[in-house]
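Hey, I'm writing a tutorial for new members on how sequence and structure tokens pair up, and I'd like a real worked example in the thread rather than a made-up one. If someone can provide the structure for the chain below, I'll link this post from the tutorial.
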Amino acid sequence: MGRFTQFIYKCEISPEAKIDGGLYIGHPYCITINPNAKIGRNCNIHKGVTIGQENRGKRKGAPIIGNEVWIGVNSTIVGSITIGDDVLIAPNSYVNQDIPSHSVVFGNPCQIRSSQNATEGYINRKI
């Protein structure tokens, strides 16, 4: 991401972050992605999202995010955790634990609900 784009949109997406194809950023404002994060295929990230690391404790490290994950406005995902495939993270959620595939996550502390096809109709521009 160029310095001009970073300045205008206030996005910090490290070139070291491992991001598979199909990333869709709906509103590219105030997004932070840690250099050690891994993001799967066909993920959607919205404004105000932070994907960061924890610096101590049992979750020291950065998240691994699966395929077809929809991350809502102002959500925060932190620590060495794994987010499964087909997961919808509702706006304003704080996620600091592993999330199984086919789930909807919401709230702070996060609550998890099993849901087959959790992201159906939500993922934009799949490749």
